[in-house]
Amino acid sequence: FYYGAGHTVDEVSESDYKGCKLGNAISSDSSGTTTIALKTSGPHYFICGIPGHCTGGMKLSVTVSVSSASSAGGGDDTTAKTPAVEGGKIPAVEAGKSAPSASSTVALKPLEALVVTCVVALLYALALS
User: Fold this and answer.
1) CA quadruple 62, 49, 113, 105: dihedral positive or negative?
2) Angle at the Cα of 16 (from 111 to 115), degrees rounded to 5?
3) d(Cα 24, Cα 1) in Å, to the nearest integer?
4) What is residue 91's predicted lDDT score, i.e. its pLDDT?
5) Which of 7, 42, 64, 81 has a CA that sits 20 to 30 A from residue 108's CA?
6) Please, are residues 22 and 8 in contact by the beta-carbon 8 Å criterion?
7) Around 102, how many Cα atoms within 13 Å sit in the side-chain half-sphere?
8) What pLDDT score does 8 carry?
């Protein structure tokens, strides 16, 4: 995430995300350049921890999914896909590449870039309104 002064990126629980509840962040950063590795599949919730910002729309829900696909050789491999973002879907990235085994961490660099782009666009749009 890239953002200006006066904002934070807080990873929060689903209930805190839905209610824009501040103060219970799983992690929080206000450096202006926050990198969060999404190492697990499933939903991840982010809000701006400044009072009034989340309720004003400065929040983001990302769902990381991994699906199975058959390879040309007949065996099964796992293909990492980019997440569905609240309000829309992001198309798959690198759909033909195999993901690491279940015991290793999934690298999601394209995902991080997409998340950053979405947050910057959201923050910019809110700053203009």
Assistant:
1) negative
2) 15
3) 20
4) 38
5) 7
6) no
7) 4
8) 96
In sequence order, the β-bridge partners of residue 82 are none
pLDDT at 31 over 60: yes
pTM of the model: 0.54
Q: In the structure encoding, which two tokens stand for residue 26, read together?
A: 């799983």
Q: Which domains does the chain have, with CATH numbers?
A: 9-128 (2.60.40)
Predicted confidence (pLDDT) at residue 78 exceeds the cutoff of 70? no
Question: Quick one: tokens of 39?
Answer: 């190492």
Do strands 42-47 and 76-85 pair parallel, antiparallel, or not at all (unpaired)?
unpaired
Q: Phi then psi for 28, rounded to 5 degrees? A: -145, 145
- If you average pLDDT over residues 37-42, what whole number do you get? 90
Take residue 62 and report the two structure tokens written for it. 């990302």
Pairwise CA distance, residues 77 & 25, whole Å: 35
Q: How far is CA 105 from the centre of its chain?
A: 16
Please tell me the predicted confidence (pLDDT) of residue 129. Answer: 61
